[in-house]
Design goal:
about 400 residues; Rossmann fold; 2 domains; seven-stranded mixed beta sheet; globular
Length: about 400
C-alpha cells in the first residue's frame, strides 16, 4: 500500500491524506443494465479505487459519478426478497418496542426506496414520511405512502421542519455509504432531528468486507464503507454521538446504530465496539494490508473453477443479478461462455442484459428450463433463501457455487 496526497478530500472529514487499499481498475456501473446488444449504457467504464482516510479512518472510493446517473432510475426493490420482507416486519416491531409509537411520533426514512419499510412503520403506529431520489419515491407516494422525491440534505431537512416539524425518529438504512455529499446529509439529519429524537442508522459493516473479502460490494453507488469508529467520528463533527450498537445479518453483516444529540446517555456497548475496532486496526490502513491480495486470489480461483467446469462440459448459470454480482462478474471477466445466464426474481431486471458481461437476465423458471448443473449465487447475502427456493420450490438437484470469501461448491 502506498500513501497518497492528491486533490481528493475525505467525504467524512475533508482530509487529503489517504492510503490505497484496492485498485479494481475500470468497471461499468453496476446497475447499467441494457435492453439489447446495441445498448451503450454499460460501455463507459469508470475507475474504481478504494482508499482509507488517515485522519478519520473512513474507507471510501475516490471516484465520483453524478448521483442523478446512479440513482435517478433504480431497479432494486425491497419486496423482491422474502428475507428482506421478513426483516422489514421485525425491524418495524423493534422500533415500536423501543420508541413507543402510541402517540404517533413523526418518523422520517431517508432512502425509503419503494416505501416497503414505510408501510410497516405506519402499521405499528408511526406518522411517516419517506425521502428518496429515485423514481420509486413517486411510486410509493402514489400508493398513499407520503414521499419526497429528492436527495436528502440540509435543504430538504429545512423544508420538512417548516412543514411538518422535527422528526422524533430518523431511519437511514443503507444510505450513508451511498452518499457523495456525506457532510450535507449528516448536517441535514442534525437539523431534522428533534432535541430528544433518535436516529437509527443501519449499514453494511466494513469488518465483514475485510473479513469475508466482500469486495463485490465495492462499486460506484457505494462511496463509503463504514465502521462504527468512522461513523462516530462523522457524527461528532455535528455534535451527535452513537448511543447504542447492535448488529444484524442483512447485506452480509450490518451494524445498527442509535444516534442522538450530544446530551443523550450512552450504553456501555458503544465503548466495547470501538475498543474492538481499535484492537483489530479496522480504522487504520495497517489492518487492511492483506485485503488486496485476498481479492485477487478470489478472482483467480473463481476464473479457474468456471474455466474447468466449461472444459468438463458442465452447464453453469448464475442467480441473483444484484449490483454486487455485476461487480464480481466484470472484475473477474466472467463472460457468457462461462456463465450462460443470470436468473433473478425481479421483473424489472428480467429481459435485460447484464452490464459489461452481457449475459441475459431471466426468470427463475427460465433459468431452470436451461437444465443447469451448477448455479453461481450472485446475491450471496440471500444464499440461504435462494438455495431453499431452488431446492423446495423449483426442484433443482444440481450444485451451487458460493463465491466468497473463496469459491466453494455445495
Amino acid at each position: 500500500m502506498t500513501t497518497e496526497s492528491s486533490t481528493f478530500h475525505c467525504r467524512g472529514c475533508g482530509s487529503d491524506r489517504t492510503t490505497l487499499l484496492l485498485d479494481m481498475g475500470r468497471l461499468p456501473l453496476a446497475n447499467a443494465f441494457v435492453e439489447s446488444e446495441s445498448g451503450t449504457d454499460d460501455r463507459n467504464r469508470e475507475q474504481l479505487t478504494l482508499v482509507m482516510c488517515e485522519r478519520c479512518g473512513l474507507a471510501q472510493i475516490k471516484e465520483v459519478v453524478a448521483r442523478e446517473k446512479l440513482f435517478g432510475s433504480y431497479l432494486w426493490v425491497i419486496a423482491t426478497s422474502q428475507t428482506a420482507r421478513t426483516y422489514a416486519a421485525s425491524f418495524a416491531e423493534r422500533l415500536r418496542d423501543r420508541y413507543n409509537p402510541a402517540g404517533r411520533p413523526f418518523l422520517v426514512e431517508i432512502a425509503s426506496n419503494d416505501g416497503f419499510f414505510l408501510e410497516h412503520y405506519r402499521r405499528v403506529g408511526f406518522d411517516i414520511l419517506g425521502v428518496d431520489p429515485s423514481n420509486l419515491a413517486a411510486e410509493a407516494d402514489a400508493r398513499g405512502l407520503p414521499s419526497i422525491q429528492e436527495f436528502f440534505g440540509v435543504g430538504v431537512a429545512e423544508r420538512i421542519v417548516s412543514e411538518r416539524g422535527p422528526a422524533d425518529v430518523i431511519v437511514a438504512r443503507n444510505v450513508l455509504g451511498h452518499v457523495c455529499q456525506l457532510q450535507d446529509l449528516v448536517a441535514g439529519m442534525k437539523r431534522l432531528l428533534a432535541p430528544d429524537g433518535r436516529m437509527v442508522i443501519e449499514s453494511p459493516y466494513a469488518f465483514m468486507l475485510r473479513t469475508e473479502v466482500q469486495y463485490d460490494t465495492i462499486f460506484h453507488e457505494h462511496m463509503s464503507y463504514l465502521t462504527i469508529g468512522s461513523v462516530a467520528a462523522l457524527m461528532a463533527r455535528y455534535e451527535m454521538k452513537i448511543t447504542d450498537v447492535d448488529y444484524c445479518r442483512m447485506n452480509g453483516g450490518s451494524f445498527v446504530l442509535e444516534v442522538a444529540h450530544d446530551a443523550a446517555d450512552v450504553t456501555s456497548n458503544v465503548e466495547a465496539a470501538l475498543n474492538f475496532e481499535n484492537l483489530i486496526d479496522l480504522n487504520r490502513p495497517a489492518g487492511w494490508r492483506r485485503f488486496a491480495r485476498q481479492v485477487h486470489a478470489q478472482r483467480d480461483a473463481l476464473r479457474t473453477l468456471l474455466e474447468q467446469l466449461k472444459a468438463d462440459g458442465r452447464r453453469v448459470v448464475g442467480y441473483g443479478a444484484a449490483a454486487k454480482a455485476m461487480t464480481m462478474l466484470n472484475f473477474c471477466s466472467v463472460t457468457p461462455d462461462l456463465l450462460a445466464a443470470m436468473g433473478d426474481a425481479n421483473p424489472r431486471k428480467q429481459g435485460l442484459l447484464c452490464p459489461g458481461v452481457r449475459m441475459p437476465v431471466v426468470s427463475p423458471e427460465e433459468l431452470m428450463a436451461m437444465d443447469p448443473e451448477y448455479i453461481l449465487i450472485g446475491a450471496w447475502n440471500f444464499q440461504e433463501e435462494i438455495i431453499r427456493t431452488f431446492r423446495e420450490k423449483l426442484g433443482y438437484r444440481g450444485k451451487f457455487i458460493i463465491p466468497l470469501p473463496m469459491p466453494a461448491v455445495v
